[in-house]
Design brief:
The protein is an alpha+beta fold and 174 residues long. It contains five helices and eight strands. 33% of the residues lie in helices and 21% in strands. β2 and β3 form a beta hairpin. α3 runs parallel beside α4. It is globular and about 50 Å long.
């Protein structure tokens, strides 16, 4: 049994060691100030474009957080994202597609070298959902979700599981 635990630990270390921590210079980044956390996957920020006082909506790439009406998970995801940001500036990193069909800016959000999209998934506050053509951190997000499931965190807690995915919930509650 201990050989299996050692082997699993070595594999986990190997996976973590293989993760790319550098950001591609081809993908521009911008530092912004968060005006408000709208939900577990959406922010309003200052500092995009020429007018630094203009508010823009940012949708975190690669995740789907529970809807705010999807209690208690929606409010928990929003509160956790607020706590991770702590009213400090964040760095937005962009991928292939810049905006979604609602006009929100699509971005990976970094604070103090922590990818907040990944942190929310790793803590079981959101699901990993790959969205073509933006796949830069899909492997990291998928591993984070596997971890949260294995550890039974947040939405994966077997005593209080989230029964519908956020997209299923939104479809049923239009």
């Amino acid at each position: 049994m201990t050989k299996i635990a050692i082997l699993l630990s070595c594999l986990l270390l190997l996976l973590v060691g293989c993760q790319t921590q550098t950001k591609s210079p081809a993908n521009p980044q911008v530092q912004v100030k968060v005006a408000q956390v709208v939900s577990g996957q959406t922010l309003e920020v200052f500092g995009m474009g020429d007018q630094s006082n203009l508010i823009s909506q940012v949708r975190l790439l690669g995740i789907d957080a529970p809807d705010l009406q999807q209690r208690p998970w929606g409010s928990a995801a929003k509160e956790r994202l607020q706590a991770l940001i702590e009213e400090q500036p964040v760095m937005l990193e962009f991928d292939v597609e810049g905006k979604d069909k609602f006009g929100r800016i699509l971005a990976y959000v970094w604070k103090d070298k922590v990818l907040l999209n990944e942190q929310l998934v790793k803590e079981g506050q959101a699901l990993f959902v790959g969205r073509s053509p933006n796949h830069k951190y899909d492997q990291r997000l998928e591993r984070a979700q596997q971890w949260a499931r294995l550890m039974e965190l947040g939405i994966w807690n077997p005593e209080k599981p989230m029964r519908l995915t956020p997209s299923e919930f939104r479809r049923q509650n239009r």
